[in-house]
Amino acid sequence: MENNTALTAQDVADILKIAKNTVYELIKRGELNSYKVGRKVRFTLSDVEEYIASSKSIQKPLAGSVVNPSQSSLIQTSPAFSGNDFIICGQDLMLDVLSSYVEKQAPGTRTLRSYIGSYNSLVALYQGHVQVATAHLWDGDTGDYNLPYVRRLLPGIPTIIIHLTARIQGFYVPKGNPKNIHTWADLTQPDLTIINREKGSGSRILLDEHLRLLGINSASINGYLRESQSHFAVASTVGRGGADVAVGQEKVASQIKDIDFIPLQKERYELVIKKEDYHSAPVQTIIKILRSEEFRQEFEGIDGYYIEEMGNIIAEI
């Protein structure tokens, strides 16, 4: 998909995995750029990528708005819930759909979204800035997802981990994979350039852990310090020839023109909450939604989501 390709509201809804009406709401709130052809609203891929990237720092005290955990004036800083607001941290668009469901099923509850990466999400939970963190952090020494990081980043805090979905992580490469990239060691090719994710994201930590295990110095990889803020952004960069490879999720690959996806490993994407908040109304609403057939059907037909364990409590720490 070229950056200047005209996208319809339905195209954008399909990319973001949200309702078409939500797309128009994003336009109305000034969060998503658009243009008109006659009476029809159109978008470019750059508009969508810009929304995903900029939403990490947009702050609006509105229902479903985006907050930055570093700005304590706009979020709760107490360990427990206060009032009817709560913040869900994480970057997967499934969380936007979840937030919409919560507001429908719990009238008067305002769901705020923070689009920061997994590592910073757990830090924000530890500091009391958010109520729901999400993580897909792989530990190279144990081969486990999330539990080792929860223990390190939330020391002494009882937590509950709830499964959301599994996803496939791998490489975005140009069509035909001209550089023959199949393993982590292939990233050291001298004529190869990568585009990286930001520090703290699950994809960046996955890359760093594999490089550590292989004894590869990140400084030897061309483009390692070049960062982008979303899977869509790095995939489209590879698709238009701006890089030879990037690490990302399977589900994005089918939405970007001129790239192939090289699967590497299945990851676990999970919600993390403090045990003291488990019986709160917002968290119980989330669990009810995740276990509902209606919510599961939203994602059963989408490639890249593996939802068999959705809503299961994985661990209590």
UniProtKB/TrEMBL annotation:
<dbReference type="InterPro" id="IPR041657">
    <property type="entry name" value="HTH_17"/>
</dbReference>
<feature type="domain" description="PBP">
    <location>
        <begin position="101"/>
        <end position="291"/>
    </location>
</feature>
<dbReference type="Pfam" id="PF12727">
    <property type="entry name" value="PBP_like"/>
</dbReference>
<dbReference type="Pfam" id="PF12728">
    <property type="entry name" value="HTH_17"/>
</dbReference>
<dbReference type="InterPro" id="IPR009061">
    <property type="entry name" value="DNA-bd_dom_put_sf"/>
</dbReference>
<protein>
    <submittedName>
        <fullName>Helix-turn-helix domain-containing protein</fullName>
    </submittedName>
</protein>
<dbReference type="InterPro" id="IPR010093">
    <property type="entry name" value="SinI_DNA-bd"/>
</dbReference>
<dbReference type="InterPro" id="IPR024370">
    <property type="entry name" value="PBP_domain"/>
</dbReference>
<feature type="domain" description="Helix-turn-helix">
    <location>
        <begin position="7"/>
        <end position="54"/>
    </location>
</feature>
